[in-house]
Each structure stands twice: as C-alpha cells, then as structure tokens.
Amino acid sequence: MDFHWPKTKDAKVDDGAGILRQQDGALCQVSLAGRITIDSSPDLRLSLLQHLESPACQSLTVDFYDVVYIDTSGLAVLVEVLKAARDRGKTLYLSRLRERLRYLLEATRLAHLFNEAQ
Fold first, then answer.
1. Residue 109 in domain
2. What burial class does residue 87 get, using C-beta atoms within 10 Å of its C-beta: 0-12 exposed, 13-18 middle, 19+ buried?
3. Does pTM surpass 0.85?
4. Number of other CB atoms surrounding residue 73 within 10 Å
5. Is residue 6 part of a domain?
6. Which residues have a Cβ under 8 Å from the Cβ of 51 and sit 6 or more positions away?
7. What gap in Å lies between CA 81 and CA 69, rounded to an integer?
8. Residue 5: inside a domain
9. Fewer CB within 10 Å, N or C, the chain?
10. At 111, which CATH number?
C-alpha cells in the first residue's frame, strides 16, 4: 500500500508528544517525532487508541520517520494497539521504520506481527 497524506485543516499536532494526526476517509495516519520512551508512551498509547475508537478510522498507519529513539515501552504500546486494532476488525500499518525500530522489532521477534506500509 502506498499512502499519500494531504496536509489538511483536520491535521492536529500534539506538541508535547510529537504526534501529527491526519485522516482521509477511513484511512488514518499518525506521524510521530522525537523520542518514544516510558515518559512519552502513555500519550502515544492514548492517541493511537483514540483513533481506533473512531468508527470512521478503519485503517491506521503509524509513521516513524522522525522518531530518533524508541524503547521497550514504545514497543509495548505498539503491541497493545495492534491487539486493539485486530479486536475491532481494523488494520494497523507501520510506516517508514528507521533502523533502530526495525532492529528492535526483529530482535524481540515482533516484526512478523506487524504489517508495514510501503
């Protein structure tokens, strides 16, 4: 799948968490920036789960291009959000993974669980 997300008036930025949210019909995207640590993971969890609660959002893509660091609490959030998406019959895609996140997913044997957007 190839996603192109137009900058729209509906895009919202949570400055503290480095989260940009966009929606185009049933396709939702959350673009992340900065560091995902035990301190920022709760905000990320809340934001991603809120998207999945929306009936309009059937497919959620999480863009990691501007993420410079992620720890295991961030991985735990991704696993929880994946489970929530599957429980709701929705899809979760990870997009533009950097080397560190890809390595963590592979080292923890979680990579095979996630769909990656191209």
1. yes
2. exposed
3. no
4. 16
5. no
6. 21, 28, 30, 57, 60
7. 19
8. no
9. C
10. 3.30.750.24
Is the residue at 74 inside a domain?
yes
What residues of the chain score a pLDDT lower than 50?
Answer: 1-16
Q: Which residues contact 30 (CB under 8 A, 6 or more apart)?
A: 19, 20, 21, 22, 47, 48, 51, 60, 61, 62, 63
Tokens 């995207």 belong to 29
**Count of structural domains within the chain:** 1
9 phi and psi angles, rounded to 5 deg = -65, -20
Range of the domain at 63: 12-117
Q: In this structure, what token pair is assigned to residue 95?
A: 């997009």
For residue range 71-95, list pLDDT tens digits in order. 999 999 999 999 999 999 999 999 9
CA nearest to 18, candidates 31, 4, 8: 31
- Looking from the CA of 67 toward its CB, the CA atoms found within 13 Å total 29
